[in-house]
Amino acid sequence: MSTKVLLLIVLFINALVIISNFIYVTPSIVLKSEPFSKERTDDVEEIKALEAIVAKGWATGDARMMASAYTDDADYVTFNGEWLKGKQAIIDTHQSLFDGVLKGSSLADREIKAIRFLTENVALVHVTGSVKQKWREKPAKSRKSIQTLVAIKKDGIWKFATFHNTRVSRISLWDAIIMSFK
């Protein structure tokens, strides 16, 4: 086989890979919002304040402040599936990140999409947002995430007991092909 033919085959395969990354096998993702409870405005404001503490702690690189919004035995699942058990694990992991690869980063485009009260003292919370690195003007589209949190009220104080973070991303044809071989 000549070098020209081999080069054309390689170029054709590369073109197919590139094109298949822009063909999606999953539908567009719409991040809905729900109205907040009008009967529980004080509780809604307290939960919003918890989210603000998380964002401020992140922006200042203060993992202890960020983790103060969580219960001592909180379950925290990161975007890549790492499960942190307890407030101290949340502090240790995030402080290491804030002192390293996430130094100077902040939470951007944060929006509480829904707060649904499951019981008098338990609320399901959905938040969207992204991590914006210090050197970027806007967060990378690949960092858009949705978080599911459970807030509990104990002794009159709301805290987050669970956190689960998932990237918002569609699956391209190329991703689907690759996943089928795994």
Order of helices and strands: HHHEEHEEEEH
The counted number of beta strands is 6
> pLDDT under 50 segments (min length 5)?
none
Helical proportion? 25-40%
**Main sheet specs:** 6 strands, mixed
Q: By helix and strand content, what is the structural category?
A: alpha+beta
As a whole number of angstroms, the C-alpha radius of gyration is 21 Å
Report, as a whole number of angstroms, the end-to-end distance.
31 Å
Shape: elongated
Number of helices: 5
Write the layout of secondary structure elements.
Elements: H1 3-20, H2 41-59, H3 63-67, E1 70-77, E2 83-85, H4 87-99, E3 106-119, E4 122-132, E5 145-154, E6 157-167, H5 173-180
Parallel strand pairs: 1-6
Antiparallel strand pairs: 1-2, 3-4, 4-5, 5-6
Describe the protein's architecture and organization.
With 182 residues, the protein is α+β, with helices and mostly antiparallel strands. 35% of the residues lie in helices and 31% in strands. It is built from five helices and six strands; from the N terminus they run αααββαββββα. It has helices at 3-20, 41-59, 63-67, 87-99, 173-180, and strands at residues 70-77, 83-85, 106-119, 122-132, 145-154, 157-167. The protein has a six-stranded mixed sheet with strand order 2-1-6-5-4-3. The two termini are 31 Å apart.
